[in-house]
Amino acid sequence: MSVATACANIALVKYWGKRDALHNIPAAGSLSLTLDRLRTWTEVTRVEGAPSDTLTIDGHPVAGHALERIRRFADLVRREVGDSGAISVKSQNTFPTAAGLASSASAFAALAVAVADVFGLKMTESELSILARRGSGSAARSIFGGYVRMQAGVAEDGADAYASPLEDIDFPLVAAICVARAEAKKIGSTDGMKHTRATSPYYDAWIRQVDLDLEAVEAALRSQDFERLAELVEGNCLAMHANAMAARPGIVYFRSSTLWAIERVRTLRAEGTPVFFTIDAGPHVVAFTPPEHLNAVAQRLTGHLDVAEVLTSSVGDGAHLADAMPEIS
Ligand code: PMV
């Protein structure tokens, strides 16, 4: 049995588009901050003689598409080590998965570490990042803590498409996550990216912009230029959504609470609080701010009828093995 844990991450420069769907290789790089409030614990056990893999998420047995995704992921490791043994996967999240927060990042990063270990496959962190990427593009970044940069690479098989930690950046930011009350999203990231690439007139411009934003955001983090960072991160997020909205038919992840929270963040900033927002493929707004402003920012993001809760998070560490699953209430 192997137990691993990993945190989700939120991208400051977003990944939205694949250059290869089969190997799940991104079309451009991305840059994120790992968050400790959004954590997954995963226990993987080999079940000798069992006919197939099983999956439990937060105590509920899961079948269908989610189980198939896990099976195909485990196959990558089974093929590598020449072992066809079935596994039982138990996964626990410390945050509401139904809300559509970035659960695939922490899930596949933890799974990569646990599955490799259970089959005795020794991997470097770059190899683990590549393996996690096969499960979910953003999971490649969750192998590492703090600020992380993902490179798209050029190799056809994705051998150079992995993430690396930006260890020398020391810009203390924490997050308030404004969890919207919403049903599960209708278009997941894989389908959303495919549809955007196929039909959005802005897709090529978006990919070009990501390269510019990556350099500029990394420079703003290094020089600790908050105003510049705020402008770049919000711009990159809105460009990703504009790109998806311009697909035909357009993909709109925003809800009324999303626009409300954007407005609140910008008002706060205009009043002098250093804070900026970003939004993944869903309605939830994530506000980044220095630690001393976190409570005030979280407070200002509560109060909308469609905001279920505001979670606060500090920076998370990289994926790693653990002794046992904790009790999560
Ligand atoms: O890892 P995926 O396939 O769920 O894609 C993640 C896409 C975004 O969350 C919208 C952006 C990102 O870079 O995390």
Short description:
With 329 residues, the protein is of the alpha+beta class. Helix content is 36%, strand content 25%. The strands form three sheets. Strands 1, 4, 5, 6, 7, 8, 9 and 14 form an eight-stranded mixed sheet that branches.
Overall description:
The chain is built from eight helices and 14 strands. The protein has 329 residues and is of the alpha+beta class. The strands form three sheets. Strands 1, 4, 5, 6, 7, 8, 9 and 14 form an eight-stranded mixed sheet that branches. Strands 11-12-10-13 form a four-stranded antiparallel sheet. Strands 2-3 form a two-stranded antiparallel ribbon. A hairpin with a 5-residue loop joins strand 11 and strand 12. The relative contact order is 0.20. The model has no long low-confidence stretch (mean pLDDT 96). The site of (3R)-3-hydroxy-3-methyl-5-(phosphonooxy)pentanoic acid has 15 residues, from helix 2 and helix 4. (3R)-3-hydroxy-3-methyl-5-(phosphonooxy)pentanoic acid binds next to helix 2 and helix 4.
Topology (SSEs and partners):
Layout: E1 2-13, E2 18-20, E3 25-26, E4 30-46, E5 54-57, E6 60-62, H1 64-81, E7 87-93, H2 103-118, H3 125-135, E8 147-150, E9 163-165, E10 174-180, H4 189-199, H5 203-222, H6 226-245, H7 256-270, E11 276-279, E12 285-289, H8 294-300, E13 307-313, E14 320-322
Helix pairs in contact: 2-3, 5-6
The protein binds (3R)-3-hydroxy-3-methyl-5-(phosphonooxy)pentanoic acid.
